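Chapter review: from sequence to fold.
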Amino acid sequence: MATDSGENSKLSALSDGVSAREARFIKRLNSIKERRLKESNKENSAFAKRLDSGSYFIGDSKITEIRLKEAELDYLLTIEKLKHRLLEEKENLERAVRDRREAERALAEEEEIRKRRLVIDGRIEELKEKIDEVSEKLTAETAAESEARRKLSEIKEESGIRKPAVSASLPAVKKYEKYDRANIIEIRDVYFKRKGETEFLLKGLNLSVKRERITVFYSESKEKLVWLRQVLNKSYGSDVRVVRGIVRIDGKETGGAPRDEFKETFGKYMISLSQIYGILGRAKGKLKGALRGICDDGRLKAFCALFGYTLKGTNVSVLRFTSEELSDIALAAVFASGRDVSIVDFPEEYLQKGALAELISYLNKPSRQNAALIMTTDIKLAGAIEEAKVYKI
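The C-alpha coordinate string follows.
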Protein backbone atom coordinates (compact mmCIF):
# COMPACT_ATOMS: atom_id res chain seq x y z
CA MET A 1 0.00 0.00 0.00
CA ALA A 2 2.92 2.36 0.73
CA THR A 3 4.22 1.72 -2.78
CA ASP A 4 0.81 2.51 -4.29
CA SER A 5 0.57 5.86 -2.40
CA GLY A 6 4.09 6.75 -3.46
CA GLU A 7 3.25 6.10 -7.06
CA ASN A 8 0.02 8.18 -6.76
CA SER A 9 1.99 11.03 -5.22
CA LYS A 10 4.39 10.80 -8.12
CA LEU A 11 1.50 10.91 -10.56
CA SER A 12 0.04 13.89 -8.67
CA ALA A 13 3.39 15.61 -8.85
CA LEU A 14 3.54 14.95 -12.57
CA SER A 15 -0.01 16.24 -13.02
CA ASP A 16 0.94 19.61 -11.64
CA GLY A 17 2.99 20.30 -14.70
CA VAL A 18 0.59 18.87 -17.29
CA SER A 19 -2.61 19.89 -18.91
CA ALA A 20 -6.02 19.08 -17.60
CA ARG A 21 -6.53 16.38 -20.21
CA GLU A 22 -3.34 14.63 -19.25
CA ALA A 23 -4.27 14.95 -15.60
CA ARG A 24 -7.61 13.25 -16.24
CA PHE A 25 -5.80 10.51 -18.10
CA ILE A 26 -3.39 10.02 -15.28
CA LYS A 27 -6.21 9.88 -12.76
CA ARG A 28 -8.00 7.34 -14.83
CA LEU A 29 -4.88 5.22 -14.96
CA ASN A 30 -4.62 5.43 -11.18
CA SER A 31 -8.19 4.25 -10.66
CA ILE A 32 -7.75 1.37 -13.09
CA LYS A 33 -4.57 0.31 -11.33
CA GLU A 34 -6.22 0.44 -7.91
CA ARG A 35 -9.13 -1.60 -9.16
CA ARG A 36 -6.84 -4.23 -10.63
CA LEU A 37 -4.82 -4.30 -7.46
CA LYS A 38 -7.96 -4.97 -5.39
CA GLU A 39 -9.03 -7.73 -7.76
CA SER A 40 -5.56 -9.22 -7.57
CA ASN A 41 -5.71 -9.14 -3.76
CA LYS A 42 -9.09 -10.88 -3.81
CA GLU A 43 -7.82 -13.53 -6.18
CA ASN A 44 -4.78 -14.02 -4.03
CA SER A 45 -6.93 -14.43 -0.91
CA ALA A 46 -9.24 -16.86 -2.66
CA PHE A 47 -6.26 -18.78 -4.00
CA ALA A 48 -4.72 -18.81 -0.55
CA LYS A 49 -7.97 -20.13 0.91
CA ARG A 50 -8.11 -22.76 -1.79
CA LEU A 51 -4.52 -23.74 -1.01
CA ASP A 52 -5.29 -24.00 2.72
CA SER A 53 -8.37 -26.10 2.20
CA GLY A 54 -6.47 -28.29 -0.28
CA SER A 55 -3.66 -28.96 2.20
CA TYR A 56 -6.15 -30.03 4.84
CA PHE A 57 -7.81 -32.30 2.33
CA ILE A 58 -4.46 -33.79 1.33
CA GLY A 59 -3.59 -34.35 5.06
CA ASP A 60 -6.91 -36.07 5.80
CA SER A 61 -6.48 -38.31 2.77
CA LYS A 62 -3.02 -39.37 3.90
CA ILE A 63 -4.27 -40.16 7.38
CA THR A 64 -7.20 -42.11 5.97
CA GLU A 65 -4.88 -44.00 3.63
CA ILE A 66 -2.55 -44.88 6.50
CA ARG A 67 -5.46 -46.06 8.62
CA LEU A 68 -6.75 -48.16 5.74
CA LYS A 69 -3.35 -49.77 5.36
CA GLU A 70 -3.19 -50.49 9.09
CA ALA A 71 -6.65 -52.02 8.95
CA GLU A 72 -5.58 -54.09 5.95
CA LEU A 73 -2.50 -55.32 7.85
CA ASP A 74 -4.64 -56.24 10.87
CA TYR A 75 -6.99 -58.08 8.57
CA LEU A 76 -4.13 -59.98 6.92
CA LEU A 77 -2.65 -60.81 10.33
CA THR A 78 -6.02 -62.12 11.50
CA ILE A 79 -6.24 -64.26 8.37
CA GLU A 80 -2.77 -65.71 9.05
CA LYS A 81 -3.74 -66.51 12.64
CA LEU A 82 -6.91 -68.23 11.43
CA LYS A 83 -4.88 -70.22 8.88
CA HIS A 84 -2.43 -71.29 11.63
CA ARG A 85 -5.30 -72.30 13.90
CA LEU A 86 -6.93 -74.25 11.08
CA LEU A 87 -3.64 -76.10 10.44
CA GLU A 88 -3.38 -76.97 14.14
CA GLU A 89 -6.96 -78.22 14.18
CA LYS A 90 -6.26 -80.25 11.05
CA GLU A 91 -3.17 -81.81 12.66
CA ASN A 92 -5.12 -82.58 15.85
CA LEU A 93 -7.87 -84.18 13.80
CA GLU A 94 -5.37 -86.27 11.82
CA ARG A 95 -3.66 -87.29 15.08
CA ALA A 96 -6.99 -88.28 16.59
CA VAL A 97 -7.80 -90.34 13.49
CA ARG A 98 -4.41 -92.07 13.67
CA ASP A 99 -4.84 -92.77 17.40
CA ARG A 100 -8.27 -94.19 16.78
CA ARG A 101 -6.96 -96.42 13.98
CA GLU A 102 -4.09 -97.61 16.18
CA ALA A 103 -6.50 -98.31 19.03
CA GLU A 104 -8.79 -100.24 16.68
CA ARG A 105 -5.79 -102.16 15.34
CA ALA A 106 -4.58 -102.93 18.89
CA LEU A 107 -8.06 -104.12 19.86
CA ALA A 108 -8.20 -106.29 16.76
CA GLU A 109 -4.77 -107.76 17.55
CA GLU A 110 -5.77 -108.36 21.17
CA GLU A 111 -8.94 -110.08 20.04
CA GLU A 112 -6.93 -112.22 17.61
CA ILE A 113 -4.46 -113.11 20.37
CA ARG A 114 -7.35 -114.00 22.67
CA LYS A 115 -8.85 -116.27 20.02
CA ARG A 116 -5.49 -117.92 19.37
CA ARG A 117 -4.93 -118.38 23.11
CA LEU A 118 -8.31 -120.04 23.42
CA VAL A 119 -7.38 -122.37 20.57
CA ILE A 120 -3.97 -123.07 22.15
CA ASP A 121 -5.54 -123.62 25.57
CA GLY A 122 -7.93 -126.08 23.96
CA ARG A 123 -5.04 -127.91 22.36
CA ILE A 124 -3.11 -127.89 25.64
CA GLU A 125 -6.12 -129.38 27.38
CA GLU A 126 -6.29 -132.10 24.73
CA LEU A 127 -2.56 -132.76 25.14
CA LYS A 128 -2.95 -132.93 28.91
CA GLU A 129 -5.71 -135.49 28.51
CA LYS A 130 -3.52 -137.49 26.15
CA ILE A 131 -0.60 -137.24 28.59
CA ASP A 132 -2.84 -138.47 31.40
CA GLU A 133 -3.91 -141.39 29.22
CA VAL A 134 -0.30 -142.22 28.34
CA SER A 135 0.70 -141.87 32.02
CA GLU A 136 -2.04 -144.27 33.03
CA LYS A 137 -0.95 -146.73 30.35
CA LEU A 138 2.69 -146.35 31.39
CA THR A 139 1.75 -146.91 35.05
CA ALA A 140 -0.20 -149.99 34.08
CA GLU A 141 2.68 -151.26 31.94
CA THR A 142 5.15 -150.59 34.77
CA ALA A 143 2.94 -152.47 37.19
CA ALA A 144 2.63 -155.33 34.70
CA GLU A 145 6.41 -155.35 34.21
CA SER A 146 6.97 -155.43 37.97
CA GLU A 147 4.50 -158.27 38.29
CA ALA A 148 6.23 -160.13 35.46
CA ARG A 149 9.61 -159.62 37.15
CA ARG A 150 8.19 -160.90 40.42
CA LYS A 151 6.73 -164.00 38.77
CA LEU A 152 9.98 -164.60 36.88
CA SER A 153 11.87 -164.39 40.15
CA GLU A 154 9.49 -166.89 41.74
CA ILE A 155 9.87 -169.23 38.79
CA LYS A 156 13.65 -169.04 39.01
CA GLU A 157 13.57 -169.78 42.71
CA GLU A 158 11.21 -172.72 42.21
CA SER A 159 13.40 -174.12 39.42
CA GLY A 160 16.49 -173.96 41.59
CA ILE A 161 18.11 -171.03 39.82
CA ARG A 162 19.61 -168.89 42.55
CA LYS A 163 20.54 -165.23 42.21
CA PRO A 164 23.81 -164.16 43.69
CA ALA A 165 23.28 -162.71 47.11
CA VAL A 166 22.91 -158.95 47.12
CA SER A 167 25.25 -158.66 50.06
CA ALA A 168 27.95 -160.25 47.94
CA SER A 169 28.11 -157.19 45.69
CA LEU A 170 27.95 -154.71 48.56
CA PRO A 171 31.02 -153.39 50.31
CA ALA A 172 31.34 -153.70 54.06
CA VAL A 173 28.79 -151.73 56.07
CA LYS A 174 30.10 -148.38 57.19
CA LYS A 175 29.51 -146.83 60.54
CA TYR A 176 27.39 -143.81 59.71
CA GLU A 177 28.66 -140.46 60.86
CA LYS A 178 26.80 -138.52 63.49
CA TYR A 179 24.30 -136.01 62.10
CA ASP A 180 25.80 -132.60 61.35
CA ARG A 181 23.45 -129.73 62.25
CA ALA A 182 24.96 -127.64 59.46
CA ASN A 183 23.19 -129.95 56.95
CA ILE A 184 19.48 -129.88 56.22
CA ILE A 185 19.78 -133.06 54.07
CA GLU A 186 22.24 -135.92 54.45
CA ILE A 187 22.53 -138.98 52.17
CA ARG A 188 24.90 -141.56 53.57
CA ASP A 189 26.12 -144.73 51.77
CA VAL A 190 22.89 -145.20 49.79
CA TYR A 191 22.45 -148.19 47.44
CA PHE A 192 19.30 -148.25 45.34
CA LYS A 193 18.10 -150.95 42.92
CA ARG A 194 15.17 -152.80 41.44
CA LYS A 195 13.87 -155.84 43.24
CA GLY A 196 15.13 -159.07 41.78
CA GLU A 197 18.09 -157.43 40.06
CA THR A 198 21.73 -157.29 41.05
CA GLU A 199 22.70 -154.11 39.21
CA PHE A 200 22.36 -150.94 41.26
CA LEU A 201 20.62 -147.86 39.95
CA LEU A 202 22.50 -145.77 42.54
CA LYS A 203 25.33 -146.94 44.72
CA GLY A 204 27.55 -145.56 47.43
CA LEU A 205 26.00 -142.08 47.48
CA ASN A 206 27.33 -139.68 50.11
CA LEU A 207 25.81 -136.24 49.66
CA SER A 208 24.95 -133.26 51.86
CA VAL A 209 22.84 -130.14 51.44
CA LYS A 210 23.86 -127.39 53.83
CA ARG A 211 21.42 -124.92 55.34
CA GLU A 212 21.15 -121.54 53.58
CA ARG A 213 23.68 -122.68 50.96
CA ILE A 214 23.48 -123.76 47.32
CA THR A 215 24.15 -127.39 46.38
CA VAL A 216 24.27 -128.75 42.83
CA PHE A 217 23.71 -132.40 41.94
CA TYR A 218 25.14 -132.79 38.42
CA SER A 219 25.10 -135.88 36.25
CA GLU A 220 25.39 -136.70 32.58
CA SER A 221 22.61 -139.21 33.15
CA LYS A 222 19.19 -137.69 33.77
CA GLU A 223 17.92 -141.10 34.86
CA LYS A 224 20.30 -141.16 37.83
CA LEU A 225 19.12 -137.73 38.96
CA VAL A 226 15.50 -138.86 38.65
CA TRP A 227 16.23 -141.89 40.86
CA LEU A 228 18.04 -139.64 43.35
CA ARG A 229 15.04 -137.30 43.47
CA GLN A 230 12.78 -140.27 44.18
CA VAL A 231 15.09 -141.37 47.00
CA LEU A 232 14.86 -137.86 48.49
CA ASN A 233 11.09 -137.51 48.39
CA LYS A 234 10.36 -141.25 48.68
CA SER A 235 8.29 -141.30 45.50
CA TYR A 236 9.72 -144.52 44.02
CA GLY A 237 7.50 -147.47 43.23
CA SER A 238 7.19 -150.79 44.99
CA ASP A 239 9.47 -152.48 42.44
CA VAL A 240 12.54 -150.57 43.66
CA ARG A 241 14.02 -150.04 47.09
CA VAL A 242 16.91 -148.65 49.10
CA VAL A 243 18.89 -151.72 50.08
CA ARG A 244 21.38 -149.90 52.25
CA GLY A 245 22.19 -146.45 53.61
CA ILE A 246 20.25 -143.69 55.29
CA VAL A 247 18.66 -140.41 54.28
CA ARG A 248 18.29 -137.72 56.95
CA ILE A 249 16.20 -134.55 56.67
CA ASP A 250 16.75 -132.09 59.49
CA GLY A 251 18.33 -134.90 61.48
CA LYS A 252 15.43 -137.35 61.08
CA GLU A 253 15.85 -140.59 59.14
CA THR A 254 13.28 -141.05 56.37
CA GLY A 255 13.74 -144.77 55.66
CA GLY A 256 11.22 -146.18 58.13
CA ALA A 257 8.46 -143.62 57.52
CA PRO A 258 5.42 -144.83 55.50
CA ARG A 259 4.68 -142.80 52.35
CA ASP A 260 1.72 -140.83 53.80
CA GLU A 261 3.58 -140.11 57.01
CA PHE A 262 6.63 -139.09 55.01
CA LYS A 263 4.63 -136.38 53.20
CA GLU A 264 3.27 -135.01 56.46
CA THR A 265 6.59 -135.16 58.32
CA PHE A 266 9.14 -134.33 55.66
CA GLY A 267 7.09 -132.65 52.92
CA LYS A 268 7.13 -129.39 54.88
CA TYR A 269 10.93 -129.20 54.58
CA MET A 270 11.26 -129.17 50.78
CA ILE A 271 9.40 -128.64 47.51
CA SER A 272 10.54 -128.99 43.89
CA LEU A 273 10.00 -127.24 40.58
CA SER A 274 8.71 -130.40 38.89
CA GLN A 275 6.32 -131.02 41.79
CA ILE A 276 4.67 -127.59 41.50
CA TYR A 277 4.65 -127.69 37.70
CA GLY A 278 2.87 -131.05 37.92
CA ILE A 279 0.29 -129.56 40.31
CA LEU A 280 -0.35 -126.64 37.93
CA GLY A 281 -0.47 -128.97 34.92
CA ARG A 282 -3.21 -131.07 36.51
CA ALA A 283 -5.19 -128.13 37.93
CA LYS A 284 -8.33 -126.93 36.18
CA GLY A 285 -9.46 -124.28 38.65
CA LYS A 286 -7.96 -120.96 39.64
CA LEU A 287 -4.26 -120.41 40.26
CA LYS A 288 -4.92 -119.30 43.83
CA GLY A 289 -6.58 -122.60 44.65
CA ALA A 290 -3.89 -124.67 42.94
CA LEU A 291 -1.16 -123.06 45.05
CA ARG A 292 -3.11 -123.01 48.33
CA GLY A 293 -0.87 -124.20 51.13
CA ILE A 294 2.30 -123.67 49.09
CA CYS A 295 2.74 -119.87 49.04
CA ASP A 296 0.76 -116.64 49.46
CA ASP A 297 -0.09 -114.18 46.68
CA GLY A 298 2.26 -111.41 47.80
CA ARG A 299 5.41 -113.55 47.88
CA LEU A 300 4.43 -115.27 44.64
CA LYS A 301 4.06 -111.95 42.79
CA ALA A 302 7.34 -110.67 44.24
CA PHE A 303 9.32 -113.74 43.11
CA CYS A 304 7.59 -113.72 39.70
CA ALA A 305 8.78 -110.13 39.23
CA LEU A 306 12.25 -111.15 40.45
CA PHE A 307 12.44 -113.77 37.70
CA GLY A 308 11.19 -111.39 34.99
CA TYR A 309 7.49 -112.36 34.85
CA THR A 310 4.64 -110.02 35.74
CA LEU A 311 1.81 -111.86 37.49
CA LYS A 312 -1.30 -109.64 37.55
CA GLY A 313 -3.33 -111.85 39.88
CA THR A 314 -4.00 -115.38 41.10
CA ASN A 315 -7.79 -115.26 40.87
CA VAL A 316 -7.48 -116.52 37.28
CA SER A 317 -8.01 -119.96 35.77
CA VAL A 318 -4.80 -121.98 35.39
CA LEU A 319 -5.93 -122.90 31.88
CA ARG A 320 -5.45 -119.30 30.73
CA PHE A 321 -1.66 -119.50 31.20
CA THR A 322 0.74 -120.84 28.60
CA SER A 323 3.21 -123.61 29.44
CA GLU A 324 6.07 -121.06 29.55
CA GLU A 325 4.12 -118.86 31.97
CA LEU A 326 3.32 -121.86 34.19
CA SER A 327 7.06 -122.69 34.27
CA ASP A 328 7.87 -119.15 35.47
CA ILE A 329 5.10 -119.30 38.08
CA ALA A 330 6.26 -122.74 39.30
CA LEU A 331 9.84 -121.45 39.68
CA ALA A 332 8.63 -118.42 41.66
CA ALA A 333 6.40 -120.64 43.84
CA VAL A 334 9.36 -122.89 44.77
CA PHE A 335 11.19 -119.97 46.40
CA ALA A 336 8.02 -118.16 47.57
CA SER A 337 7.04 -121.27 49.57
CA GLY A 338 9.70 -120.47 52.18
CA ARG A 339 10.59 -124.15 52.61
CA ASP A 340 13.95 -125.07 54.12
CA VAL A 341 15.09 -126.50 50.78
CA SER A 342 14.00 -125.19 47.37
CA ILE A 343 14.65 -127.97 44.84
CA VAL A 344 15.02 -126.73 41.27
CA ASP A 345 15.18 -129.94 39.25
CA PHE A 346 16.11 -129.77 35.56
CA PRO A 347 15.60 -126.01 35.12
CA GLU A 348 17.18 -126.24 31.65
CA GLU A 349 14.09 -128.20 30.55
CA TYR A 350 11.40 -126.14 32.22
CA LEU A 351 12.66 -122.56 31.87
CA GLN A 352 13.27 -120.21 28.97
CA LYS A 353 16.70 -118.58 28.61
CA GLY A 354 15.56 -115.31 30.21
CA ALA A 355 14.13 -116.98 33.31
CA LEU A 356 17.18 -119.26 33.53
CA ALA A 357 19.48 -116.23 33.55
CA GLU A 358 17.36 -114.55 36.23
CA LEU A 359 17.52 -117.75 38.33
CA ILE A 360 21.34 -117.82 38.13
CA SER A 361 21.47 -114.13 39.04
CA TYR A 362 19.22 -114.72 42.06
CA LEU A 363 21.23 -117.72 43.26
CA ASN A 364 24.42 -115.66 43.08
CA LYS A 365 23.02 -112.92 45.34
CA PRO A 366 24.37 -112.96 48.89
CA SER A 367 21.00 -111.83 50.30
CA ARG A 368 19.26 -115.06 49.23
CA GLN A 369 17.79 -117.12 52.10
CA ASN A 370 17.20 -120.85 52.74
CA ALA A 371 18.95 -123.75 51.04
CA ALA A 372 18.69 -124.38 47.31
CA LEU A 373 19.29 -127.72 45.61
CA ILE A 374 19.83 -127.64 41.84
CA MET A 375 19.61 -130.92 39.90
CA THR A 376 20.87 -130.59 36.34
CA THR A 377 22.51 -132.32 33.40
CA ASP A 378 23.88 -128.98 32.12
CA ILE A 379 27.52 -128.60 33.15
CA LYS A 380 27.54 -124.91 32.13
CA LEU A 381 24.61 -124.19 34.44
CA ALA A 382 26.34 -126.04 37.28
CA GLY A 383 29.48 -123.96 36.77
CA ALA A 384 27.61 -120.63 36.50
CA ILE A 385 26.41 -120.75 40.12
CA GLU A 386 29.07 -119.16 42.31
CA GLU A 387 30.07 -120.64 45.69
CA ALA A 388 27.91 -123.74 45.13
CA LYS A 389 28.92 -127.18 46.35
CA VAL A 390 28.79 -129.38 43.22
CA TYR A 391 28.41 -133.16 43.39
CA LYS A 392 28.84 -135.28 40.29
CA ILE A 393 26.50 -138.26 40.38
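Two observations follow directly from the output. The first helix runs from residue 2 to 15. The CA atoms of residues 44 and 71 lie 40 Å apart.
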